[in-house]
Here is the input.
Amino acid sequence: MSLIPWRKHDSSLRSFRREMDDLFQRFFEEPFGAQLPEIFTKAEMPKLDFAEDEKEFTVKAEIPGVEEKDLHVEAHDGFLTISGEKRQETKEDKKSYHRRELSYGSFQRSVPLPPNAAGEKAQAEFAKGVLTIRIPKSAPSSGKKIDVKKG
Here is the structure.
């Protein structure tokens, strides 16, 4: 068994404790935690349904409050990536909130695509806060017989 040297002042641990103390102090001093760190105020990830039938894969994502121009959909390297930003209304009449639960900010969600998904042929529609992405299935690979030659 080896001994661990005792250090009177561990600056990294003290720094962490100071940050946590500041966080809790700000949370209870300011109304309803108005100044929470950015990690707590990011927009939530969109919830997804990923289904398939004999012709295609269908991905539906709930993205309420986001405008079509703020959505980006990409299919690359075997992944489907949905990203965007939910913008907060800037015009407020000095309201005094009793509760604020709506989330604002940018988001990104990536899901792996099955090997037979033709991501380059995907099409997306956005209506009533629901993004629907249709990805056709690619033709199954018939494989190729590889002859082994004597070396």
The two ends are 57 Å apart (CA to CA).
